[in-house]
Backbone:
C-alpha cells in the first residue's frame, strides 16, 4: 500500500500462443464491443494518433483485449457489435431508443478502428443486421451452455445481467471485477432471472422504455420479490391499498407488458459465426505490431513484447490534436530527455523485471547507483493510509526508466530482509545529498512515512503530482494511475490485483515478494518517467515559478503542520455530543408535532412521505428510486415559502451533521501517541489551488453559527500556550477590485471604508451615514454573490425577494460598476478560447464544460471561470505567506507553530508570552505576501480556544 491507491487493472503482459484445439468443455468469452467503446470513451482522457484521429476508446479497448488474449481466460473468444440502430424492437415500439443523441464527433471514427483492433488481434468480430449485440450475446451464451460449456460476458451493462446463471457470468472490463448473482442482488435487490421483471416495471429512460411511471428500481424490486413476476404484480394491483403506485400499475399495465418484451433479451438469434470458429488463436505478431504502431500505441507494443516486429519506423505516440477554442484536448507527448543525466534506460523501456533487495549490501549498491545518476525516484509502501499512524513496510527506488527495485522491510514470512533501522541509516545520506534530486509522487505522504521511521526530510526534491497540478489544475486528476495512462499510456498494476479484494484481501505485509516487487517498484519507475515527461513542460506552460516558489516549498510546511496537529478537548466534545443529542430530541418532538405523527426524521423516504403525501406540500419531485426528493435544496425552497417543518428539519440535519462529523468523530481521531488531532492537507484536489483537508475535514465547520463556534471551542491550546488566528479580510473582493480595476472599490479599500456600505451607497444612492442594516445586507449579498456569478434567482432566494427585484439590484450594480461586467465577460471568453483562466499569479485553472451545449452545465462552468481567478488568487496569496512564515518565525526567535489553514485563515499555537509578537509578525508576513492595487488586510485574534481566537 502506498500514496497512490485503487487503480485500473494492469495490462503489462506479452502475447503468448493460445490453445490450438477446442477444449472440452468450451469457455466462450463474449466481449460487448458496442457497450465497451462508449464506456472507454467516457472513462479515458481524450487522445489522438499522429494524423489527428481520436483514439482514446480504441486505446482502452486494445489494452483490455491484450489482457484477455494473454491471460487465456477462455478457449473461445469473440467481440460482439451492434450492426445498426434499427432492430426488431423498433417494430414493437417505434419510439424505442428514438431520443438517443448521435455519438460525439470524437467517437464516430473509433467504431471502425475498434473493429480493426479485433482483426489485428485475430479475434472474430460479430454483428447481425436487425439484432442488437445483447441478443447475439444471449444466443451465443445459450449455445455454449447447451454444449456443456461456460460463457463469460465482458461488460457491465445492466441489460446483460439478466443472463447470469450457472454457466454464464460477467466481468466488468473497466473495474476488472466479476459480476455474479450476489452482485446483481446487491445492486438490484433481485436474482438475475428476475431482473427482467424489475426492468419492465421501472422502464429505461436511456432506451425510451416506458415502464410504469413512478416505479423506481427499489419499488420494482419490492413488488417482484413480493408477487413473483410482472403478470402477478399487475394481477394484484387492483387489490392493493389505494395509492399513486396502485393507480399507476393499473393505468400503465400494457406499457409494462410492452416494456418487458423490449427489455427481455432473445436467445434465438441466428449465429453468424459457428461456435467452433471462435477458438482462441495466436495473433499474427507482425500484423499486430504494425497496426499498433499505426495508432501510435508505442507503450502497448513494448508491453506486449513486440519490439522485434519492427519492419517500419515507429510512429509517434498519440498526442493532442490542434485545439480549437475551448476544446481542451489532453496531450500524450513523447517523454523528453531528462534535464538530469541517467545511467540507462529510455522512455520506451519495459516496465520491469524489477529487483527485490533483501540485503544491506544490495541496498547500498542501489544507493551508490542513485548517487551516481544524480536523480532517484522513491516510493513507500505502508500498512495504512493515515500517514501519522501507518508503518513503513518497504520502499522502492528507480534510477532510470525500467531500472527499479523494491526493498521489503516488514513483510511476514520472508527469511531475509534489511532491518528497518539499518535501511533508514543507509538511505539517510542519499535523502540529504544536495547533489541528488529525489523525485516523489505525493512527496508529503512519503516523506511523512520516512520521517516517522527515523529518516531526515529529503532535499532537494521534486513531486510529479504537484508538477502536473501546477500546470493543469481542474483539467484532470493528478494521481499516479491517471497520469501514467494520460502521459505514458501505461496502466499501472492495481492494488486489488496484488492484495485481493473484500474478505479475501490480505495486508500488504502478507503479500509474497514475487507479487509485491513488481507492484511497488513500478510505482518508483512510473514516478521517474512522469517526472521526465512533465518537468520540462513547466517552462512551456509558464508554471515553473508557481511550482518551484509556491507548491514545492509548501510541502515541508504542510508536513510539519500535519505532524504538529491540534489539541482538542475530548471531555468538552463528549459534553457537546450529549447537548446536541438532547437538542435534537427536542427538535424531533417539535417536528413530530408539526407533522401530526411520529416518524424517523433521519429517513429521507419517510420525510418525503410526510411532506408530500401526508401534508401535500407543493413542489415535490420523485427520484429515480420512486421516493420523494428531500435534499437540502428541496427543504430550503419549502422553508423560504414559509413552511415551518422543512425549516426545522434543516436545523436538525445541521446539528446531526455536527454531532456525527465533529462532536463524536473527533474523539476517535485523537492520535494515541500525540494526544492531538492530525488533519491531512490535500495539495492537488481543487481546480483553483485551494488546499483541502480530510480526517477531519476542518473546512466545513460553520463559521458564523452558534453550533460552529461551539465546535471551534473544543480546539484548544496546550497549557501555557494560546491559539492565534490570522484571517485575510474580504480577500476575494479585494482581488476583484484589483483584477477588474474598479476605481470606486479600490478607493474604498484604500480608505479603509465599510465596503458593503460603500457599495450600497454607490448602487442605491443612499448616504453611508445612518444606513439601514437591511440595505447594507443586500449590498453585501451582491458583493459576494457577484464573485460566484450569482443569478437573479439565487440572489432573490438569498434575500427573500422576487427574482425580478433581485435582477434590478444586479443591473444597478453593473450600471455603477461596468468594469466588473467587462471583467466577467472577458474572463468567460478567455476560458472559451484557452480552456482555462489564470490567477493574477499565473496559476492556470482549467474550466471543464465551458463549451457545453447543455445550458445549465455551461452556465455552471462560466460561474467557475468568473470565480476561479479570485478564489485561486486568494489561494496563491495565502500559500505565498505560508512558505515565508516558518523562516520568519525562526528569524524572530519565536517558538510559534503553524497548525491549520482553513480557506483564508491560518491558525498558530504559541507560548502565551509570545502571543502578541506572533500575531504581529503573522499579520506583517501575510499582508506582504503580494502587492496589489488595493491593500491586503489581516485580522488577528488570540485565545485559549479556536473560537476565542477567531
Residues:
Amino acid at each position: 500500500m502506498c500514496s497512490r491507491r485503487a487503480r485500473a487493472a494492469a495490462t503489462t503482459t506479452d502475447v503468448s500462443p493460445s490453445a490450438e484445439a477446442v477444449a472440452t468443455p468450451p469457455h466462450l468469452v463474449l466481449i460487448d464491443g458496442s457497450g465497451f467503446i462508449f464506456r472507454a470513451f467516457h472513462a479515458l482522457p481524450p487522445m489522438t494518433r499522429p494524423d489527428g484521429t481520436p483514439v482514446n476508446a480504441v486505446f482502452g479497448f486494445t489494452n483490455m483485449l491484450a489482457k484477455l488474449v494473454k491471460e487465456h481466460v477462455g478457449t473461445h473468444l469473440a467481440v460482439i457489435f451492434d450492426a445498426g440502430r434499427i432492430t426488431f424492437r423498433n417494430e414493437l415500439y417505434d419510439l424505442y431508443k428514438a431520443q438517443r443523441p448521435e455519438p460525439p464527433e470524437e467517437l464516430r471514427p473509433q467504431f471502425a478502428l475498434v473493429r480493426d483492433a479485433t482483426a489485428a488481434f485475430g479475434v472474430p468480430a460479430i454483428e447481425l443486421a436487425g439484432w442488437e449485440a445483447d441478443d447475439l450475446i444471449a444466443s451465443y451464451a445459450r449455445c455454449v451452455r447447451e454444449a456443456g460449456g461456460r460463457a463469460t460476458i465482458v461488460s457491465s451493462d445492466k441489460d446483460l445481467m439478466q443472463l447470469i446463471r450457472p454457466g454464464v457470468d460477467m466481468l466488468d472490463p473497466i473495474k476488472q471485477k466479476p459480476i455474479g448473482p450476489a452482485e446483481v442482488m446487491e445492486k438490484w435487490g433481485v436474482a438475475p432471472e428476475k431482473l427482467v421483471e424489475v426492468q419492465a416495471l421501472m422502464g429505461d429512460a436511456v432506451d425510451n422504455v416506458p415502464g410504469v411511471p413512478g416505479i423506481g428500481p427499489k419499488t420494482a424490486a419490492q413488488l417482484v420479490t413480493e408477487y413473483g413476476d410482472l403478470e402477478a404484480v399487475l394481477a394484484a394491483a387492483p387489490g392493493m391499498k389505494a395509492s399513486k403506485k396502485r393507480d399507476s400499475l393499473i393505468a400503465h399495465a400494457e406499457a409494462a407488458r410492452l416494456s418487458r418484451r423490449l427489455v427481455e433479451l432473445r436467445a434465438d438469434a441466428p449465429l453468424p459465426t459457428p461456435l467452433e470458429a471462435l477458438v482462441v488463436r495466436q495473433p499474427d505478431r507482425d500484423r499486430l505490431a504494425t497496426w499498433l504502431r499505426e495508432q501510435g500505441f508505442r507503450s502497448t507494443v513494448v508491453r506486449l513484447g513486440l519490439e522485434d516486429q519492427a519492419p517500419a519506423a515507429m510512429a509517434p505516440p498519440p498526442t493532442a490534436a490542434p485545439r480549437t477554442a475551448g476544446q481542451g484536448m489532453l496531450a500524450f507527448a513523447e517523454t523528453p530527455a531528462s534535464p538530469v543525466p541517467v545511467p540507462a534506460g529510455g522512455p520506451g523501456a519495459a516496465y520491469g523485471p524489477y529487483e527485490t533487495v533483501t540485503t544491506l549490501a544490495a541496498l547500498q549498491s542501489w544507493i551508490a547507483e542513485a548517487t551516481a545518476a544524480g536523480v532517484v525516484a522513491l516510493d513507500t509502501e505502508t500498512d495504512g493510509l493515515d500517514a501519522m499512524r501507518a508503518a513503513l513496510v518497504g520502499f522502492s527506488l528507480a534510477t532510470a526508466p525500467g531500472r527499479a527495485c523494491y526493498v521489503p522491510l516488514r513483510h511476514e514470512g520472508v527469511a531475509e530482509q534489511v532491518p528497518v533501522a539499518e535501511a533508514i541509516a543507509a538511505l539517510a545520506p542519499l535523502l540529504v545529498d544536495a547533489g541528488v534530486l529525489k523525485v516523489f509522487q505525493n512527496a508529503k505522504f512519503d516523506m511523512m512515512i520516512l520521517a516517522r521511521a527515523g529518516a531526515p526530510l529529503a532535499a532537494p526534491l521534486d513531486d510529479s503530482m504537484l508538477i502536473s497540478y501546477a500546470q493543469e489544475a481542474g483539467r484532470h486528476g493528478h494521481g499516479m494511475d491517471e497520469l501514467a495512462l494520460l502521459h505514458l499510456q501505461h496502466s499501472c498494476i492495481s492494488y486489488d490485483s496484488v492484495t485481493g479484494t473484500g474478505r479475501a484481501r490480505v495486508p500488504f505485509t502478507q503479500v509474497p515478494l514475487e507479487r509485491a516487487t513488481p507492484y511497488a517498484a513500478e510505482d518508483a519507475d512510473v514516478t521517474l518517467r512522469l517526472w521526465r515527461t512533465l518537468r520540462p513542460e513547466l517552462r512551456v506552460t509558464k508554471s515553473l515559478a508557481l511550482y518551484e516558489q509556491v507548491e514545492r516549498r509548501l510541502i515541508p510546511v504542510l508536513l510539519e503542520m500535519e505532524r504538529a496537529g491540534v489539541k482538542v478537548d475530548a471531555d468538552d466534545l463528549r459534553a457537546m455530543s450529549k447537548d446536541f443529542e438532547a437538542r435534537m430530541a427536542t427538535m424531533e418532538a417539535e417536528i413530530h408535532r408539526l407533522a401530526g405523527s411520529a416518524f424517523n426524521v433521519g429517513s429521507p423516504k419517510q420525510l418525503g412521505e410526510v411532506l408530500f403525501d401526508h401534508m401535500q406540500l407543493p413542489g415535490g419531485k420523485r427520484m429515480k428510486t420512486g421516493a420523494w426528493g428531500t435534499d437540502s435544496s428541496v427543504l430550503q425552497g419549502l422553508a423560504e415559502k414559509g413552511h415551518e417543518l422543512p425549516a426545522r428539519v434543516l436545523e436538525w440535519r445541521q446539528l446531526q451533521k455536527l454531532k456525527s462529523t465533529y462532536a463524536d468523530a473527533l474523539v476517535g481521531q485523537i492520535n494515541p501517541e500525540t494526544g492531538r488531532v492530525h488533519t491531512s492537507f490535500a495539495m492537488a484536489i481543487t481546480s483553483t489551488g485551494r488546499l483541502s483537508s480530510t480526517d477531519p475535514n476542518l473546512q466545513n465547520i460553520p463559521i458564523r453559527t452558534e453550533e460552529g463556534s461551539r465546535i471551534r471551542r473544543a480546539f484548544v491550546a496546550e497549557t501555557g500556550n494560546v491559539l492565534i488566528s490570522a484571517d485575510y479580510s474580504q480577500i476575494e473582493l479585494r482581488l476583484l477590485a484589483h483584477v477588474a480595476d474598479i476605481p470606486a472599490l479600490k478607493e474604498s479599500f484604500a480608505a479603509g471604508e465599510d465596503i458593503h456600505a460603500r457599495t450600497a451607497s454607490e448602487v442605491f444612492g443612499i448616504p453611508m451615514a445612518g444606513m439601514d442594516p437591511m440595505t447594507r445586507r443586500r449590498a453585501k449579498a451582491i458583493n459576494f454573490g457577484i464573485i460566484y456569478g450569482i443569478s437573479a434567482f439565487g440572489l432573490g432566494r438569498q434575500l427573500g425577494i422576487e427574482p425580478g427585484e433581485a435582477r434590478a439590484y444586479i443591473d444597478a450594480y453593473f450600471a455603477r460598476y461596468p468594469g466588473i461586467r467587462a471583467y466577467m465577460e472577458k474572463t468567460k471568453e478567455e476560458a472559451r478560447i484557452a480552456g482555462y483562466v489564470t490567477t493574477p499569479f499565473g496559476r492556470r485553472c482549467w474550466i471543464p464544460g465551458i463549451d457545453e451545449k447543455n445550458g445549465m452545465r455551461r452556465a455552471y462552468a462560466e460561474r467557475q471561470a468568473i470565480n476561479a481567478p479570485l478564489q485561486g488568487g486568494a489561494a496563491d496569496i495565502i500559500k505565498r505567506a505560508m512558505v515565508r512564515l516558518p523562516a520568519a518565525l525562526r528569524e524572530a526567535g519565536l517558538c510559534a507553530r503553524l497548525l491549520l489553514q482553513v480557506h483564508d485563515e491560518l491558525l498558530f499555537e504559541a507560548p502565551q508570552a509570545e502571543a502578541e509578537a506572533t500575531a504581529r509578525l503573522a499579520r506583517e508576513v501575510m499582508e506582504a505576501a503580494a502587492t496589489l492595487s488595493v491593500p491586503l488586510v489581516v485580522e488577528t485574534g488570540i485565545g485559549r480556544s479556536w473560537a476565542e481566537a477567531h
